[in-house]
Amino acid sequence: MPTPTKGPRIGGGPAHERLILANLAQSLFEHDQITTTQAKAKRLRPLAERLITFAKRGDLPARRKVMSVVKDKGVVHRLFVEVAPDMADREGGYTRITKIAPRKGDNAPMCVIELVREPVSAKPKRAVVTEAESATKRAAKDEEAAAPEAAEEETTEVAAEESTEAPAEETTEADESTGSDSAEADDKA
């Protein structure tokens, strides 16, 4: 036997609650969204999602199960033909409850419960990586890390060669301008 829900029932007794929820589900499937109190919406959500799951199956026993709750054949047909194909990719979470301003007369908390008909945005699934693939990826990362260091070493070597050549060129220019001075310096050395 299923465990009873916590809190007071909607309506007077269990039969009245089942009728209220069946009427709410029928209205939800007919209009795609309804405005109701938060307590009713929270009680309606599991029932509506279960009925949508039956509709996704699409076979005759599922249709009969839904017909035992929702009595209008036109609404059941719409649920199986229009709503269920929209929910085919979705693995649950068929309804959305949005809180709105409280009701004016008795300040009851109100909300809108609606069917989520948008397509599911597919999240990329993590690929299972084998040890060989992870070793290959690590080696590629190590090579990439080593490449900038090697490039830095090459640039420092080139800069060092240029710096050693530059003073030699300056001395040759100085030698040309003062030919006798440089010859004397060479003799002294």
From TrEMBL:
Domain of life: Bacteria
GO terms classed as biological process: translation
Any single Gene Ontology cellular-component annotation: cytosolic large ribosomal subunit
Keyword line: Ribonucleoprotein, Ribosomal protein
Ranges of compositional bias, category Acidic residues: 150-178
PROSITE patterns: RIBOSOMAL_L17 (PS01167)
Statement: the UniProt record of this protein carries the keyword Ribonucleoprotein: yes
Region of interest: Disordered: 122-189
Transmembrane segments: none
Gene Ontology terms for molecular function: structural constituent of ribosome
Biased composition (Basic and acidic residues): 134-144
Assembly and binders: Part of the 50S ribosomal subunit. Contacts protein L32.
Family label: Belongs to the bacterial ribosomal protein bL17 family.
This protein's name: Large ribosomal subunit protein bL17
Taxonomic path: Bacteria, Bacillati, Actinomycetota, Actinomycetes, Micrococcales
Gene name for this UniProt entry: rplQ
